[in-house]
Design brief:
The chain is mainly α. It folds into two domains: 95 residues, no CATH class; 28 residues. It has five helices and no strands. Helix 1 crosses helix 3, helix 1 packs across helix 4 and helix 2 packs antiparallel against helix 3. The longest helix has 26 residues. The radius of gyration is 17 Å and the shape is globular.
């Protein structure tokens, strides 16, 4: 069973890398790029829609929502683009995942702004 879960996780990771490359491809329509970018950003984001510490529901996004988003995004990408991206994803998995500190910093900044805004609203509500 552990081997099946490990294979499932590896396949999920491979599909995320395929979507990562599809976002950069000019042959993909803008609306598909937008949806795919959201799925990839959510997959790479350390912050979940449903926090993992909530019993049972915490892993719902990791087990159901993320694979569902990946599946929908893969169905929207043209087949020829998908084939090219699969080759690139396999190469990336052999070499290791990319590190984009700028995008990571932007994600952290956005969540920081949201947190500050929420704290300010709570403070205003209490006073």
């Amino acid at each position: 069973m552990f081997a099946k879960m490990k294979a499932w996780a590896r396949n999920l990771k491979r599909q995320i890398f395929i979507l990562y490359y599809a976002c950069k491809d000019v042959r993909v329509p803008w609306y598909v790029k937008a949806f795919t970018a959201c799925v990839v950003a959510y997959a790479f984001s350390p912050i979940d829609l449903i926090p993992d510490f909530i019993p049972i529901l915490g892993y719902l996004d990791d087990v159901i929502l993320l694979p569902l988003g990946i599946m929908l995004a893969l169905k929207m990408i043209p087949k020829d683009v998908l084939a090219d991206c699969e080759v690139k994803a396999e190469e990336m998995m052999k070499n290791g995942k990319p590190k984009n500190w700028i995008v990571g910093s932007i994600i952290v900044l956005i969540w920081g702004v949201i947190a500050v805004w929420a704290v300010m609203k709570i403070y205003q509500f209490l006073n």
